[in-house]
Amino acid sequence: MTLRVGIVGISGFGGGEALRLIAGHPAFELTYAAGEGSAGSRLGDRFPGAPARLAGMVIETWDPDALPSLDLLFASLPTGRSAAALARIPGEVKIVDIGGDHRDAEGWAYGLADVWPDRIKGQTRVANPGCFPAAALTALAPLLANSLVAPGNIVIDAKTGISGAGRGGGGGGFGYAESNENLVPYGLLQHVHMPEMARTIEQLSDGSAAGLVFTPHLVPMTRGILATIYCRGRATTQDCLEAARRFYAGRPFIRVTDKPPQTKWATGSNLAFVSYAADPTRELVMAMGVVDNLGKGAAGQAVQNANLICGLPETLGLEGMPVWP
Ligand SMILES: NC(=O)C1=CN([C@@H]2O[C@H](COP(=O)(O)OP(=O)(O)OC[C@H]3O[C@@H](n4cnc5c(N)ncnc54)[C@H](OP(=O)(O)O)[C@@H]3O)[C@@H](O)[C@H]2O)C=CC1
Ligand SMILES: CC(=O)N[C@@H](CCC(=O)OP(=O)(O)O)C(=O)O
After folding, report:
1. Among 42, 53, 288, 295, which has the minimal tally of Cβ within 10 Å of its Cβ?
2. Model pTM?
């Protein structure tokens, strides 16, 4: 079975990673590519490494009313730009939205694929989590589901590679000269991912996440997110590791590690690495989550979600090892 797949926003970092994964996916055939400024150019000009069979494909001007016949559409548009357009896509076209417009929207499943695959199977509309929630919630889920930490006063300190800001670089200020040898906190107290994280912490714990603190930092690397999370609880390190190993037993993309995870472990993959350190005498539990922001944080998890909603093996097209070093 080959499914006809489209990507809108293909010229961007998220869309480009989706192209890379779909080009190697045994059940997906890219038949439609769309964008705005890139419309009219060929994939081979934008992506010199594109396979020969795709290099001549012309990027169309995005028009949801002029969609060719498709089974599946990946939308990788700036947040705020997809809700109105995707509402016009016929119901028989399955959609995975990599952007932020549908993470709390009626009729859309929140695609935290490693944590609740059964909520995603059978859906036709999936909202991919944001990149920071992908790292942080994956690490927190086993602790919350087992009541090992209190949900009300969690502090998430995250570091991200610069590709997280997209090709436009967060509206400027993220260029090489400004980012190299530099560390920048941003989005203090009000980052756009706060509501998504708070909502999911509450769903996983059945308690209030009112005291959630989240501070992202931009670090001079291309890809990767490390979330270091401070929680209150009396669990030991061993309790946390065992809970995570039970929670993720048989889940193919989660690695529970004794050692603190590193961003390079995940580069170019859909893997998430989680680890824990706890000191019951101080009622301190630390959780750590590592993902590639363009992998599990965007296109990797999007393909995983697409596999789930298309009734395919969850790992199809996603089994390549990370790039190292
Ligand atoms: N970068 C990351 O790590 C992550 C990104 N995301 C989310 O994914 C989405 C895409 O991000 P990212 O790839 O980084 O962003 P980029 O800025 O790299 O790419 C944006 C893409 O959107 C297209 N686009 C913009 N406006 C329009 C429009 N009106 N019509 C059609 N296409 C349009 C651009 O096309 P063109 O060049 O043709 O104009 C481009 O391909 C965002 O919502 C982002 O928040 C989510 C998780 C992680
Ligand atoms: C470095 C950087 O700017 N990263 C982005 C996260 C990208 C992401 O996950 O975006 P959406 O939730 O909009 O999909 C940010 O902090 O907003």
Report:
1. 53
2. 0.98
